[in-house]
Amino acid sequence: GHRCIAPGCNSGYDSCKEKYHFFTVPKDDIQLREWTKAIPRKDFLIKPRQVVCERHFHEEEILRKRIMTDKDGTILAEAVYKIPKLKEGAIPSIFPNCPKYLSYSLKRRKLPLIRSSSPKKKKTDKKKDPQMDCAFNSKPSIEIAITDSINDSVGIFSFSKLQENVNSIVFPSGWSRHDIPGKLIMFSFFIVKTEETAITENYIPTPILYKRVCLGVNLNVQCFVMNIS
Amino acid sequence: LNCIKDLEDILKKFDTS
Fold it and tell me: Which residues in chain B have their CB less than 8 angstroms from residue A171's CB?
């Protein structure tokens, strides 16, 4: 099995009963150099395929689950990874069995170029925004979560939110959708007169607009059959 | 219209009517 290469660490050894996850030393040259610099071991060549256990990483640098959020940061769904991952650029930085000065906090590791005052977050008062309940990300992979969040919401629904997420509206097969930003969402159903197609082989019939459902900005719905409301 | 489902229900009903 794997044995942690961090100095004084017994993860993976018989003496260690607890199980920890191991992260492989990166192959990438730059990353490897960073890891070598970080792991305080003299006269020891750190090579890819060796491992460092999770105890030497700050929890913030370990990705244990995938969190899907909408664009406002509201969590829609969570999925725990079978195998935890490291954030990009994460390096081992906690060495409990070494002098304290060999471990370092996450902040100290930031490069001068990256270090800057964090952008002030806009304060969003969820209570004041009636559209919060309906806001969601339109990534298809989380469409199920999206639809649920909408269905569950008793909050105020708006045309703009609906239009923003127009792709998640499920409509009957054979229908088509037309989207006119800020004005209208229209669903149409066309038919083709089949008797005309029999006249000649090369005849191409023009589809007839049979049914239409129009949704206006006031969320009023109008249904048409052969252009009659 | 109160939610996306309302619209989907209308479309479903109108499709089969």
Answer: 8, 11
